[in-house]
Amino acid sequence: MNDNRTKLIVFVIFLAILVTALPMAATHGDEGKSDPSPFKRLKFRSIGPAAGGRVCRVAGVPGDALTCYAATAASGLWKSSDGGIRWKPIFDEQSTSTIGSLAIAPSDPNVIYVGSGEANIRGNIEVGN
Hints:
Largest sheet: 4 strands, antiparallel
Distance between the termini: 66 Å
Structural class: alpha+beta
Number of strands: 6
Number of helices: 1
Low-confidence stretches: none
Strand order of the largest sheet: 1-2-3-4
Mean pLDDT: 77
């Protein structure tokens, strides 16, 4: 009984020190921060298709920094030709909208290999065709 009481007292003291020290640590952490002025002109923006759901795979075209593809779990394959600012669906005519695999042919960037079905291990995966 006495041993448990000692453990409880030590725990309460430790907790009191921790609760007291955390606010002080938060106020002293600002000293090492850098000047934010170089980042003032940066704006947050969404990257990726607006109606894509989970993005399962992405692929870029070697030698073309602006072209990229996004394979989604529920809305097909999307292409961006401007570095991800705008996206267009390029798989709408197919019988499935679930893409789990994606590759660009090394010999020809106009050839895209797409595997349907979702490869992610989760409770709500979609099957392919």
